[in-house]
Design a protein that fits this description.
Helix content is 53%, strand content 0%. It is mostly helical. The relative contact order is 0.11.
Length: 66
């Protein structure tokens, strides 16, 4: 998940993912952890997504809901 987010941020900044500053990668890791905690609490409370789409390695849909 972190790698995907870092790639997105690098694209927005117009740099290669490997050129994303270490500080930015560390900031993004904290950002993701914050939302991961929220998601885990929601799941523990029975909140579930109505639709789940599986993605392949290239982030393309493997299966689409009907």
């Amino acid at each position: 998940m972190l790698d995907w987010r870092c790639q997105q941020e690098a694209d927005l900044l117009g740099v290669a993912p490997d050129d994303l500053p270490h500080e930015e990668r560390r900031r993004l890791a904290g950002f993701i952890q914050y939302f991961e905690r929220i998601t885990r609490r929601m799941l523990a409370g029975g909140v579930r997504a109505g639709v789940t789409v599986q993605l392949d390695r290239n982030r393309l849909p493997v299966s689409a809901p009907q």
